[in-house]
Amino acid sequence: MDTTLPLHPEPLAGAAIQRRALAAGLGVVLFLAAVKLALHLATTGLFGYGFFIDELYFLACSEHLSWGFVDMPPLFPAVTALVRATLGDSLLAVRLLPALSGAVLVLMTGLMARDLGGRRFAQGIAALGVIVAPMWMLMHSIHTMNALDQIFWTAAAWVVIRIERDGWEKGWLLFGALCGLGMLNKHTLAFFGVAVVAGLLLTPARRAFRSPWLWLGGLLAVLIYLPNLIWDVQHHFPHFEMLANIKADGRDTQLNPLQFLLTQAVIFNPLTLPLWLGGLVWLLIDREGRRWRALGIAWLAVMAQMLLLDGRIYYPAPAYPMLFAAGGVAIEKWIGSRRFMKPAYASVLALSGATIAPLYRRGRMAGPSAAGVALKSLHGDSRSVRIGVCTNGASAPTLATFASRF
């Protein structure tokens, strides 16, 4: 009599195939993250570009650390000071942080696609979408707080995915910590916080409000952000006054809602539109994706705030990686057995990125800088003004004097 126990080879084989697919996807994502890093480092200082004026401004602010500044919270100047203390203030040293941030964003986007159920193609195409988007080509080429802003928003969205997928209620503490640190880097993260609350309230995920961990996470965010909030109160919220001055002087570019939305399609590469728009549709209505519908609604809420408050075109950029990740999963599912479409779409995206990058490189420094506009609105001609926004009771050098050091 045969006493051999059944081994159920088919389920075991299926599990092994899935593990191999996930491992292969991680390899692709790691490769693309390395490509992103190498491209930015290899092109640093080429094409005749040295320091951007905003970078000189941040370098100056790093010599006058405070719990707040007229036009930004305290974290980025502190990080800049750390970079200068450890790596120096060469162009390559200063540009290393945004380049690393870009590689991390590629990695996080691919891993989010994996956690949403995506296999190798989903992870790879989501990561590739980040590389070929002109907006992120720019943000990861110059030393500004925008590079870190993408990381904080994306990490917070990733935590929401894990909380919903795994029932990880304590994850709200990490979400709160990320939001608090993100607010110390750039105040626009508040848009995402409000949007996530809206997404939770409008979906079954509202059950999270019954968890004490969500409220503790919110408290942690407030505590981390509190020093900068106190500074703003003591100085009568100067950032709002600066923004009002810029708007009153007519130096803000005003776009109607249609123009704003069309611009979004352009700055993220029109060929990625099926990726991130497909991700939005997948999150909102797909049977599998609507488990994370709160994030789809959060993106809509971010865009609604941008349109209502005349946000700048790059403000919602950190809300897109979660759509790229969801879009990778959606496209992988919708393509199905039509395998020839996978390499075709990936090739088209890669070719578009290779075409766009040189054009963007030639024109990326055109136009007035944000720092210059901000300083001019406060103190007059930004080319000769003393950097009063960087001082903490001490005199700051002029931009011209500081720039002459490089």
Walkthrough of the structure:
This protein is mainly alpha-helical and 406 residues long. The protein has one domain. The protein has 18 helices and no strands. Helix 13 crosses helix 15. It is globular.
Please describe the biggest sheet, giving its number of strands, its sense, and whether it closes into a barrel.
none
Helix content: 55-70%
Order of helices and strands: HHHHHHHHHHHHHHHHHH
Distance between the termini: 86 Å
Number of helices: 18
Query: How much is the radius of gyration in Å?
Result: 23 Å
Mean pLDDT: 85
Structural class: mainly alpha
- According to DSSP, the number of beta strands is 0
Q: How many domains, in number, for the residues? A: 1
Please indicate the percent range of residues in DSSP E strands (runs of 2 or more): under 5%
Low-confidence stretches: 1-5, 365-406
Backbone shape: globular
SSE topology:
Layout: H1 9-42, H2 53-61, H3 75-87, H4 91-115, H5 120-131, H6 134-139, H7 145-166, H8 171-185, H9 189-201, H10 212-234, H11 238-248, H12 257-267, H13 273-285, H14 293-308, H15 321-335, H16 341-363, H17 370-379, H18 399-403
Helix pairs in contact: 1-4, 1-5, 4-5, 4-7, 4-15, 5-15, 5-16, 7-8, 8-10, 9-14, 11-17, 13-14, 13-15
